[in-house]
Specification:
- By secondary structure, this protein is of the alpha/beta class.
- It has 2 domains: about 1-5 and about 15-170 and about 395-420, Rossmann fold, CATH 3.40.50; about 200-395, Rossmann fold (3-Layer(aba) Sandwich).
- The chain is about 40% helix and about 15% strand.
- The strands form 3 sheets. A 7-stranded mixed beta sheet has the order 4-3-2-6-7-9-8.
- α2 (about 35-50) packs across α16 and α12 packs antiparallel against α13 (about 350-365).
- The longest helix has 24 residues, at about 400-420.
- The chain is elongated and about 75 Å long.
Length: about 425
Amino acid sequence: MHTAEPGSAQGLTSAQDGRSGLALRVALFCQVLDHFGDIGVSLRLARSLRAMTDWQLALFCDQRPLADMLTDPQRDGVCWQAWPEPQSQLDPLPDVIINAFGCELPEAIREQMRQRKAEQSGPEVLWIHLDYLSAEAWVNNHHGLHSYKADGLVQVFVFPGFGPDSGGLPGGFAQLHPGEHPTAHSGAHSNAHSGARSNAHSGAHSSAFPGAHRGLDHAVFASGQTQEQEALKVFAYVYETAALAPWLGAIDAHIDLRMPESQLSPALLDALRSCGQICVRGLAPCPQWQWDEAMQACDLLWVRGEDSWVQAMRSGIPWLWQPYPQTVQTLRGKCEGLTAQMDAVLEADPAWPCWRDALQAWALGEVMPAAYRLLCQDMQAWRRLAGVWAAHCNSLPRLDRSLCHMIETHHQAISTYTSRLCRPHLQVSP
């Protein structure tokens, strides 16, 4: 599938090529709003769809160099195309178009869709608006609704979520290491003062980032005599508004902090120097699978946005989440929706109120609660909570499978449409 100028005669339309015997053509469009996050979710979904189906899958991104950097074509089985020019059309027009996070399609492609609908030259394109993940209750009532556009086109809303009537949870099972429990991370501290990691975990990894021998991480500075084998390994991918230094400083342990090198500003580094015994490492840009490995090697995850948040929830490693910056009222609704979902799973655990209070305060940028310090003093309890929540998340319906079901239903309609077109007309004998 490629772009072509209007009027191009290359390719065949669905009606011309007898679509019933050919693979479905699916195009996914991604415009970058939140740096790695939008591409990360789109890439993870595309990789899964590629593995689960025989569809002809085309991926378009308005920041292709960034998308290419996150993608390993040999491992992922997908590659990106540049965002179409304003007057370019797709040749041939796909059977399914997915707008990741509601990005706007180029007008020329919408005109193609309108023309197909007006001329009835083939079945209408299934046009999907894939929205962001939310734990709020309204998601279950809005998933699958149709939006009827002024130009006659129809778009179907897919809302990922945690409920049975949502579009399902994005991402996939975390890539755990040999010997680790499928719902929890074995390489965490039993408490903030227990230095040694488990033998199983230390045997599976070196103390540095996975891929360190490939030059992916480098030490920026070390304060105090931090011993790597005794340090709490912390992964932080946060927005610049996050009060990371004081929250790290509340942890009574040696800290081995790993962050994207692009986030290590002079101001942040100065603040981190006050955190006691800490080693700070910068993570260079890398493909998504190496990013996942870096997270999996840690004992505590500070994540943001959607993609890293979902992977943290699925991993069983203790985590705190910073939502995409919005109004306080909007953020509060998101946090309350999430903690309500988690409360239904974790309410019996006496340590849950501490995690809940820490989650809300961190996400909303509020003052650090005393509950957070208590939680850091009992990492074993935090790890237990994270493991139970991960088991729940990994049992939920998945976004990729939900999309497959929706698209395959559309494909069956295409096949029925094509077979009727090709069916010979019966003639009545005189």
